[in-house]
Design brief:
By secondary structure, the chain is of the alpha+beta class. The protein has helices spanning 3-16, 41-52, and strands at 23-34, 61-67, 70-73, 79-81, 97-102, 106-115. The strands form 2 sheets. It has a 3-stranded mixed β-sheet with strand order 2-1-6, covered by helices on one side. A 3-stranded antiparallel β-sheet has the order 4-3-5, with no helix packed on it. 19% of the residues are buried.
Amino acid sequence: MHEMSIALAVVDQVEGAPRPAGATAVRSVRLQVGELAGVVPDALAFSFELACAGTALEGAELVMEPVPARARCGPCATTWQVGMPPRLSCPDCGGATDGLLSGRELQIVTVCWNDAPVPAPIPQER
């Protein structure tokens, strides 16, 4: 299950990134996950929860944003949604794909940090 490796890499990336001033813990992480990235969303969500234990991400929500696979035809420049299983020949002219436009993404888009608690003011002694 390579989803655990992905989850561990996400945790490592987030923990290694500079924190905003006063941030103590991560509230959520949003990932773009391409349709052809080979990721099982439920397995990644489960692995993410395990990978976050004992880190600044413990209890953080994982938000996965699916990215549909799209391709472009070389001969006629038509674009289409590839789907699963992938259809790599043009639905209009039957030509070969010029390349995938999207669908292989696997990237961190945003990280939302919790703010540090505001300390109670210390009463002044007189």
